[in-house]
Specification:
Blueprint: H1 2-15, H2 21-27, E1 33-36, E2 42-45, E3 51-54, E4 75-77, H3 83-86, H4 90-96, E5 101-103, H5 109-114, E6 134-137, E7 140-146, E8 154-159, E9 165-168, H6 177-184, E10 189-193, H7 202-212, E11 216-220, H8 233-242, E12 247-248, E13 256-258
Parallel strand pairs: 3-4, 4-5, 9-10, 10-11, 11-12
Antiparallel strand pairs: 1-2, 1-13, 2-3, 6-7, 7-8, 8-9
Helix pairs in contact: 6-7, 7-8
């Protein structure tokens, strides 16, 4: 009976224009959007419209379907300073958006300085982060975690404004600490390299899902060069057997996933 009375009141409000579906739609939250731009490059657009760009290799990236002019990041996260992750476009993005903050490992700060990026645009007053360090920028919590690759390689746990948690592994092999990450964080989406040679192969990447326990996964870092695994077929096949509860989202470069 109470629900019936509420329905009548709401109908009357609609009738006299005191409330409308149009106005109600304005306050509905927007989805978070994750766009894979080939290799490791990933653009996250949050529900509040902030752009977080991870591994901003655009120019000379053979798999990237957009140009740097199409992107205007508020935050840039670099997993390490190899050419296929840091790229050469960071100065362009900082000039385009003078308030852009770049998050890097402390040992990579000097490489940014050589590109002309000063402490104003580098996290932690120009000092960078190290493993376990966290920065809260524009309401987004960014935690640097280890990656098994070169000495200053990192991954990131990214907690968006609404609590959605994304793990971008950067370049890494499988490591036991992934289980700890899976216990510490309720990971909604993991982006994992699957291309072998320099990173996890499909077998290791599939087993890492058992450790991380994400709800969804996007395979990345494959198919860019001949030396890498060329597609996600084996990863998908193995993951369905090893971690059947994880939803696998295979994207084409430029493809998006809404969270």
């Amino acid at each position: 009976m109470k629900k019936f009375r509420l329905a009548i009141i709401f109908t009357l409000l609609l009738t006299f224009g005191l409330v409308s579906f149009a106005n109600a739609a304005v306050v509905n939250k927007q989805d978070n959007n994750v766009q894979w731009l080939g290799h490791s490059a990933t653009l996250i657009t949050t529900e509040k419209g902030l752009d977080v760009f991870i591994d901003p290799w655009i120019t000379d990236n053979p798999k990237c379907p957009v140009t740097k002019e199409n992107i205007n990041p508020d935050l840039i996260l670099v997993t390490h300073n190899h050419f296929d992750h840091m790229g050469t476009d960071v100065p362009y993005f900082v000039e385009k958006n003078p308030n852009c903050i770049v998050v890097v490992h402390n040992d990579v700060v000097s490489a940014l300085n050589e590109m002309g990026i000063t402490e104003k645009n580098i996290v932690s007053y120009g000092m960078g982060l190290n493993y376990g360090g966290q920065a809260e920028l524009e309401g987004i919590k960014i935690t640097m975690v280890q990656a098994i690759h070169n000495p200053s390689a990192a991954g990131y746990i990214i907690e968006l404004e609404d609590g959605t948690t994304i793990y971008h592994a950067g370049d890494t092999g499988i490591f036991a600490g992934m289980e700890l990450l899976g216990n510490l964080y309720d990971i909604d989406l993991a982006l994992l390299p699957t291309g072998s040679t320099f990173v996890m192969n499909p077998f290791q990447a599939a087993h890492s899902l058992k450790l991380l326990k994400p709800k969804k996964v996007i395979p990345i870092h494959y198919g860019t060069f001949e030396v890498l695994v060329q597609d996600a077929t084996e990863f998908v096949k193995l993951s369905k057997k090893i971690a059947p509860n994880v939803k696998i989202e295979v994207l084409k470069p430029g493809g998006s996933l809404r969270l």
